[in-house]
Amino acid sequence: MTSTPASSSVSQKVKTAVLVLLALWSIVSLVVIVVWCTSPDLKGAAQCREELKETTEKLEGVRVVWRKDREALERLVEGEREKGEALKEEKLLLLERLNITNSTLEQSRRTNEVLRGNVSSLQEEVQLLLQKEENLTAQIGLLEDQKEVLQLNLTEAGHQTASCFSLKAAAESQMMAAESQKKGCESRSQYLQKQLQKCNAVDAEASQQQGASMATATPSIAPALTARSPIVALLLCAALILAT
User: pLDDT at position 131, please?
Assistant: First the structure.
């Protein structure tokens, strides 16, 4: 792609070169004609005038052609200038697009770097999650084992609880039996206490009777009655107990 100043300079040089060549060709032609016409040995004046006229006509034709070529060259130069302007605008657009593309590429490069960092972070997080999963799996296994042990302990505790309830029921039954026995013993004790009181009363009455008898009896019989009084009292108590 050529720039506009370069194309304009080349067109101007071509135009100048063509004009210079045409001017030189015209001058050389005139010089040749003048020299040829002024030479007496070669041709006459009439022939020279005729040839000069023809040369002049040719020169006019050449000038007309030169003008047409000039106009064509000017139009060509103008077209090239317009093309150069269009190319310049296109170049500017391409440069702008190139800058935009470079900016986009730079942003894409930075985005790729960020994404690479994110991918690395995600890979590390995945590794950590996998490690956590392994740890949790191991913990779940341990918890399952502990669950089985607790289930076994719970079953044993249930059995022990049932046994304790059975023992409690048996203890309560034994306690009720003991309570009944206690009440029976208390009743028996009260009965015996009453019988003892009766025995004491009989003993006291026997002692009184014995005292009266000793007052009236002889001295030899008194010691014998005194020795036998407790035995008599006990026999009377036993008789009362058996009677009841």
Answer: 92
Locate 110 and state its tokens: 């930075």
Helix 45-216 to helix 222-243 angle (10° resolution) is 140
Q: CA 15 from chain center: how many Å? A: 77
Between helix 4-38 and helix 45-216 the angle, nearest 10°, is 170
Alpha carbon 128 to its chain centroid, in Å, reads: 11
Residue 236 and residue 202 in contact, taking contact as beta carbons nearer than 8 Å: yes
The tokens for 206 are: 């026997």
Distance, in Å, from the CA atom of 157 to the CA atom of 169, rounded to the nearest integer, reads: 18
**Burial letters 96-121, b for 16+ CB under 10 A, else e:** eeeeeeeeeeeeeeeeeeeeeeeeee
For the segment 179-199, the average pLDDT, to the nearest whole number, is 83
11: Cα within 13 Å, side-chain hemisphere: 22
pLDDT in tens, 134-172: 999 989 989 888 888 888 888 888 888 888 888 888 888
Q: Give CA–CA dist 239/244, Å, rounded.
A: 9
